[in-house]
Amino acid sequence: MAERFDSVEVENVKKNDAGFLTYDLLAAQTGVFPYRDYATGEIVYELKHPDDLLTDEVLEQLNNLPICNEHPFEFVNTENSTELVKGLTGQNAKVDDNKLANNATVFDGNLIAAIVTGDKRECSLGFTCEIVDESGEFEGQHYDRRQTNFKLNHLAMVPKGRCGSDCFAKLDSEDGEVRQDSAYQVREDNLDNNKKGSGKMAVIKLDNKEFEVDEAVKARLDSLESNNKELTKEVGQLEGKVDAQNDTIKQLKEDKAELEGNQLDSETLQQKIDERLALLEDAKLFLDSEYDFTDKETKDIKIDCIKAVNDSFDPEGRSDDYIDARFDAMIEMASEGSTGDNNLRYQKKKQDGDDSSIQKKKNKRLNLKK
């Protein structure tokens, strides 16, 4: 199937209550038309015969046809329609004399502005067809080939006069290679310029080499380059967001592991409780009943017990192992039930009720030093 692009100017442009732009259009007509063949650059005349164009099948295709802002580099499909479709044709396609006619609605703000200002007032039909190598005459005009089996794809809004020396429309195939069966219609009133290739050219640079191309080609390349930069920027932003989310996930996993590490199972918790209760019970042998155990760490309680026996004890620089060993030794001595004066330190609870707590502490310290 060959690709073709024909252009006509739209009429009766107006806005509806929603701000959408509506207009009437003639999408195509029968006759012999000159086309510039993309592969050869030559002008060829192709026939649109009424028997091929003015059919119920083609009319049905003209209903609800996507409208694009310029011809896209690939035909409209389900994967790119969100980006490319800026409007739709109506559902009233008909044959008007020897032409295909319909109305259309554009709902994209940028394209509406371009149409209203007159920047884009031509409607260019993008379609595929089979090309029959048949020459002859139609209504007194010679043709080289005949278009048949039309498959309409989209209507593109393009600048008025684009089909003169500045007219250009090209689509790429899916693999990025330019299709060799593409062609675009040129104007009869500018046919000599198209034949001679005297249209205005622009210069592009590829791999440090300069090439002359149609201005429309350069404009399209510039547009693609701009889009590529924007997409690269968006990719960078997305990568940054993904990295940030990965960092958050990593931190959450670390926090979860830390919380799980800090949680005690029931057996370990019971062991901690038993150890605390045993410490409190042992500490009562050395500390007064007024001693406040609230919020006291195990090490602090043991140090206070040692100081109760030896008020000159300085814990500075003493390791946890030293504190534990000294406290355990005190408990062991108490459990052995020392006799004589040594026993005074372990009889705290058996002292008469009128003994002062100061005297009790003094007795304990004296007995420990013997």
TrEMBL record:
<keyword id="KW-0175">Coiled coil</keyword>
<feature type="compositionally biased region" description="Polar residues">
    <location>
        <begin position="336"/>
        <end position="345"/>
    </location>
</feature>
<dbReference type="InterPro" id="IPR016913">
    <property type="entry name" value="UCP029215"/>
</dbReference>
<feature type="region of interest" description="Disordered">
    <location>
        <begin position="336"/>
        <end position="370"/>
    </location>
</feature>
<protein>
    <recommendedName>
        <fullName>DUF2213 domain-containing protein</fullName>
    </recommendedName>
</protein>
<feature type="coiled-coil region">
    <location>
        <begin position="214"/>
        <end position="269"/>
    </location>
</feature>
<feature type="compositionally biased region" description="Basic residues">
    <location>
        <begin position="359"/>
        <end position="370"/>
    </location>
</feature>
<dbReference type="Pfam" id="PF09979">
    <property type="entry name" value="DUF2213"/>
</dbReference>
